[in-house]
Structures are given as C-alpha cells and as structure tokens.
Amino acid sequence: MKWSIKLGRFLGIDVFLHFTFLILLLVIWGSSWLTRGPSAALEATALWISIFGCVLLHEYGHALAARAYGIHTRDITLLPIGGLARLERLPDKPGQEILVALAGPAVNVVIAAVLGAVILATGGFQPFGELDVARGGFLQRLFTINIGLVAFNMLPAFPMDGGRVLRGLLALGMDHTKATRIAAAIGQGMAVLFVIVAFFGQAPMLFLIAFFVWIGAQAEVGASEARSVLAGVIVRQAMLTDYRSLTLFDTLRDASALVLSGSQQDFPVVESGPDGRVLGVLTRAGLMRALAAHGLDGRVADAMERDVPGVQADEGLEEVLPRLREQGASATPVYADGRLVGLLTMENIGELMMIRSALNQSRPG
Fold this sequence. Notes:
Layout: E1 4-10, E2 13-18, H1 19-36, H2 38-67, E3 73-79, E4 82-87, H3 94-121, H4 138-153, H5 161-171, H6 176-201, H7 204-230, E5 246-247, H8 252-261, E6 267-270, E7 278-282, H9 284-294, H10 300-303, E8 305-306, E9 311-312, H11 317-327, E10 331-336, E11 339-345, H12 346-362
Parallel strand pairs: 2-3, 5-6, 9-10
Antiparallel strand pairs: 1-2, 3-4, 6-7, 7-8, 10-11
C-alpha cells in the first residue's frame, strides 16, 4: 500500500504502517499533553500503540488461519481505522472462510482472557463506570477495548469479520456471488447506520469506517462477480494472439504509428523480431509519458517497462487477474514452453468478461 512504512517481516509476512497512523499518534500525544500534561500524553500514546499491537495480532489470526488452508498473506498494513491483511485469494469453501474470519476476533478474546487473568491476580477489576480512554487502569482499559474490538468486528457489516462470517453462512446454501451481494447489501445498510450514529453521537471516526465499509462492499461484489465469470478460464482464452511487437531500436514514432494503425495499445518489446527474447512492455500510458518528455524521436528502450514477469498460457485467469491489479500492469507477455505466444491486456480481460456475462444472461433459467 502506498505511503506505508515497512516495520519488518514476521512469520513470513511483511508488516507495514501507514503514515496516517503516525499522524494519529501525534494528535493523541499533542491533545493529551495540552489537556492533562506530559505523563498523560505518554500513557495515552502507549495505550494506542498497545491497541494497535492487539490489532496486529488480530490480523495475524486471520493470516495464520488462512495459511492452514494453503493461502498466503501478501502483507499486513496498520491503518488508523484498524488493520488489513491482504490474502492472495479467498478460501475455497464457505466453512474455511468462516473460520478464517473468526480467527481474528478469537485472538482478541484470548488477549482479553489473559489480561483479565492478570487483572484478577493483581487486585481485581475496578468499576467499569470509572473507565474511559483517559481514565482507569491501563490493563483494564486494554481489556475493555479488546472486548469492544470483538463486538465491533462481529457486526454484520461486510466486508468486516462479521460480514464475512455472514457471507460464509449464506454461501453454505446458495451461490457464492449471490451470498456476496446479500452480505454486501447488509454491510452497506450498516454503513448508513454508522453514519447516523456518527452524526448524532459525534463520533467522526465512524464516518471514515462507514466509507470504507461501503466502498469495500462494492469492491467485494465486483471481485466476486469477476471470479464467477472467469471461473475455469485460462490465460490462453483471453490473450491477444494477433499482435505487433517492437524492438529496442524502434522510436516512439514507430510505436505511435502502430497505435494509430490498429486497435493494439500495448506492445511487447523483444530483442530482435517477433521470436526474440522479451525485454519489456511498452504500455499506452508509458508511450504517452515518453512522447510528452522526448517527442516522436524518443526511443522505445527509454519508455518501456522492464522486468515484466509475464504469465503462463495455461494459468487460470482467476488467479492471474489479482496479480496484474496488484502490479498495476495493463499488459503482460504470455509464455508457453518458454516462448512468447501472446499478450494479455486488462482491456482484453474486460472484453472477455463482458462477452461471458452476456452469454450467461442469454442462457435460459
């Protein structure tokens, strides 16, 4: 994720901290210093760091549960509104999704249980009415916050944990895409409720959470529908096979002429001729940037994207598409038996999805 600082790699997963989290800590420290002094500022900052330590463990709960089903976690990012563990794919079965979703809140239950035991062993709980973010015993506040994290995350506000559990339960008895639509609609209804509560309860953070829930629900529906349409499709069925290529010695004038003379907008750049080793890809966006900087006499070699990994012709498109989106790639070369056999573009994938969607709608029943 952009604007993130890498904290390290733990249990094989990269952990990042979004820079806005540092702004949040600075605001908490400053406001506490001004209202209650330096010791209170230090304690408030320590509490928030501890809270996000619990959030990090929560995300590791999801990641390690997913790992048990052979699903790798790309990374974990800590944001001011919580954590985000990016799984490389969804669990294959609804029951697995339910368990992966529950694993995060389960970690907070364990943390609360440990804190509760320590509090009882060292003097017992003080009245909860005396607690707030700024007052009360440190451990008891952290205990209460972990219980609150469990309760909040289990709300059926898809794509939060409770919403994912709901989707998994629905998917036990219906199509996964339909279950996603229903869970997303409920999640967006919860987002509207968050906005109402935020407005009347003067809780501005809920506005931000409501926004992410609304957008996240829409994105999940789109991703689920894409997976449904692309299920069983391999790269070979979507790639361009009638394409032109460029070499390092071509100019941007040559590339522009190819764009204007046909429908192709992205070009593999090869060592020599169409059967040469692939050296990179010249995308439409890269061509436009290079034209603005160097004019028509600029070189393709200076405008192309190098070290493009490419994909295999027999790979499943459902698995390839998330990789392309993550890399921000609009086009990538396609290989079979070590040879360049095609070019896969986001435009072609979109056209294939539209064709398959139209065909699905035309089928009776």
